Amino acid sequence: MVCGDFFVPRSMRLLDPAGHLAARFDIMTMGALTIGDVEYGAEITGRCDHLDAYHVNVPVSGGFLARQGRRPIQGSTALASVFRPVGGLALDRASADCRMITVQIERQALEEHLESLLDTPVRGMLRLPIGLDLTREPGRGFAELVCVLAADITEPDALAHHPLASGPLQETVLTATLLAMDHQYRDALDRAVTSAEACRATVRVNAAVEAIEAHPESAHTSATLADVAGISVRALRLGFRKRLETSPMAYLWRTRLARAHEDLVAGDPRYTTVSEVARRWGFVHLGRFATAYRDRYHVTPAQTLRGRIP
Fold it and tell me: What's the CA gap between 88 and 186, in Å, rounded?
């Protein structure tokens, strides 16, 4: 049977002996991945005696009820089903309108990919959950990703079939699988990703610092500074925290205060006003400026302007 040739050998039978099986299997392989667009066209039941790979089934219509060992597993358009590479499975019922995108991932490939992300050995099978919520992130994003790839199965010129593209796409699916689901290494994975992102951000944060130093009076935001640095807002904040032990906005505020302080020290009270200096460096609320200035320099802006500085 086609499905057994590409996925795992299984037996199936019609729940209604008088029914008619109108099955369709569109399947492609991408290295350690096998992705299928599968529908049966009739109510069926069946079983598989042994699974040796991780499986995620994303229904796009209809649904099914199954069991793996003592674990009941349900699939619907709101819930993907997840099967571990251990034991067999029993399909109690798949509805006649059930159509699903099936993703088979070789066990060794997924676990080795996790090892590469963590830079540490992975011991034992990943304890993935039995279901993945498709109504919200990250499950929704995972489903969208595999559905896009499945749409290319019957398109021979699609990028998914090109050797140069299939490798990175396979890696993307492996990473998405590990990030979309809870498992015993999930917290460690988050820490590893955060650490790597922070290291990259520490290097790129220089561009944001230079932008602040060049024009602290400008209407910088975390988003505009992230664009300057070419990284995400989250990565920008991580980079500032790691390198400067502060946030981008706190660094901007501190730089503006320093420039205002320099102007007040050098200013002549006959020709310079505190409000003029404050506005020059982007402070639109004079009361907040005065409070922040006093907290930083322990004198008021006016005292500094009049030469009464420590």
Answer: 26
Q: Token pair 């019957």 is at which residue?
A: 154
State how beta strands 53-61 and 89-94 pair: unpaired
User: pLDDT tens-digit profile of 34-61?
Assistant: 999 999 899 999 998 889 999 999 999 9
Dihedral sign of CA atoms 84, 94, 13, 105 in order: negative
Peptide bond into 301 cis (omega under 30): no
CB count within 10 Å of CB 160 equals 19
Instruction: Please say whether the beta carbons of 60 and 98 come within 8 A.
Output: no
199 and 238 Cβ atoms separated by less than 8 Å = no
* CB of 74 closer than 8 Å to CB of 81: yes
Give residue-wise pLDDT tens across range 237-274.
Answer: 888 887 888 889 889 999 999 999 999 999 888 888 99
Contact 129, 82 (CB under 8 A): yes
Rounded CA separation 79/216 (Å): 49
